[in-house]
């Protein structure tokens, strides 16, 4: 049998370049069947061992727009994927009220 490969994913806030905590990073087959749900560390990084092959890596979080990337995991190798998540906008394309409140608090030094 072939040695397993590994996926390393880093999830950050695109605006602040800081790790994103929470949410639900998932490894999926190309047919969107869930293979694994990952748990990010405090630095926003996660690792998972996988059989070699093609997968999708999807990151969903209530405060950010979801992102999906297709990856190819090599035999015994590592693939690294970086996500820079954009803040979710409301249906009118504007930042959400929570996001606006956070921006105001940051400007005021909180």
Radius of gyration: 16 Å
- Going across the biggest sheet, name each strand in turn: 3-2-5-6
Q: Report the sheet with the most strands, covering strand number, pairing sense and barrel closure.
A: 4 strands, antiparallel
What percentage of the residues does DSSP assign to strands (E)? over 45%
Total beta strand runs: 7
Provide the residue-averaged pLDDT.
Answer: 86
Tally the helices: what do you get? 1
Q: What is the overall shape? A: elongated
Question: What is the end-to-end distance?
Answer: 54 Å
Low-confidence stretches: none
- The percentage helix is 10-25%
- Following the backbone from N to C, one meets helices and strands in this order, namely EEEEEEEH
Q: Which class do the helix and strand fractions yield?
A: mainly beta
Per-chain topology:
Elements: E1 5-13, E2 24-28, E3 34-37, E4 45-50, E5 53-61, E6 64-73, E7 78-85, H1 97-107
Summarize the structure in short.
By secondary structure, the protein is mostly beta strands.
């Amino acid at each position: 049998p072939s040695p397993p490969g590994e996926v390393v994913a880093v999830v950050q806030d695109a605006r602040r370049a800081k790790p994103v905590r929470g949410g639900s990073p998932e490894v999926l087959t190309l047919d969107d069947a869930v293979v694994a749900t990952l748990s990010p560390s405090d630095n926003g990084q996660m690792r998972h061992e996988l059989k070699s092959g093609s997968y999708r890596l999807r990151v969903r979080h209530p405060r950010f727009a979801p992102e999906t990337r297709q990856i190819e995991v090599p035999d015994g190798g590592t693939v690294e994927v970086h996500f820079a998540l954009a803040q979710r906008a409301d249906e009118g394309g504007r930042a959400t009220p929570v996001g606006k409140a956070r921006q105001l608090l940051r400007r005021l030094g909180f």
